[in-house]
Amino acid sequence: MSCRRGLPTQPIVLDQTSLPLTFRTIFLKLLWFDLQEADMDTAEWLRQSEAFLGAWNRHDVEEVVAWYTEPFVYRDPNIGAAAIESRDALRRYLSKLFDLWEMTWSVREVFVFDGADGAAVTWDATFRLRARHTRLEIHGVDIVFLRDGKVVHDEVFFDRSLLAPLVAGNAA
């Protein structure tokens, strides 16, 4: 099987019985949701995800903060096990983050959760430490839940170790 950009060029067939129990449960949930309803939900989630990432791409702290309702939970690999739970704390974090990094994101796929106002949003991103010229592409996923159209829970997952070549020699 050949690969392009790390993705198989031939379909991968998963046998649900070979997956661990928790993954098997998720796998079955993704397979058996109502397709008619999911198409509409997925289209709306895709539109919202692109608008949300647009705010992040503009590095507009206030626009990003406006997407979150209070209280909320925000986690990403840069903040460790802690969580950001207020707009003021998110504002401080984003101000520092956007000062150090030039970042752009694009939505790859959206997987809407059945029975909850949430989705797994996979993305591609380009990162560049502002003090350097080198850019790096990273793939990741956000697990996002909404309440009344605003983000109430956002957990970001990507391999932070991939940023090491960009920060080597810098105190970032």
Automatic annotation (TrEMBL):
Segments forming domain SnoaL-like: 50-153
InterPro entries from the UniProt entry: NTF2-like_dom_sf (IPR032710), SnoaL-like (IPR037401)
Any Pfam family hit: SnoaL_2
Q: What is this protein called?
A: SnoaL-like domain protein
Tell me what organism the protein belongs to: Mycobacterium kansasii
